[in-house]
Amino acid sequence: MTPIISVANLSKTYGTGFKALTNVNLDIDKGEIFALLGPNGAGKTTLIGIVCGIVNASEGSVTVGGHDINRDYRAARSLIGLVPQELHTDAFETVWATASFSRGLFGKPKNPDHIEKVLKALSLWDKKDSKIITLSGGMKRRVMIAKALSHEPQILFLDEPTAGVDVELRKGMWEVVRGLKASGVTIILTTHYIDEAEEMADRVGVINKGEIILVEDKADLMQKLGRKRLTLHLQGRLDRIPEALAPYHLALGEEGRQLVYDYDTRGERTGITSLLGDLRNAGIRFADLETTQSSLEDIFVSLVRPQ
Question: What's the whole-model pTM score?
Answer without folding.
Answer: 0.73
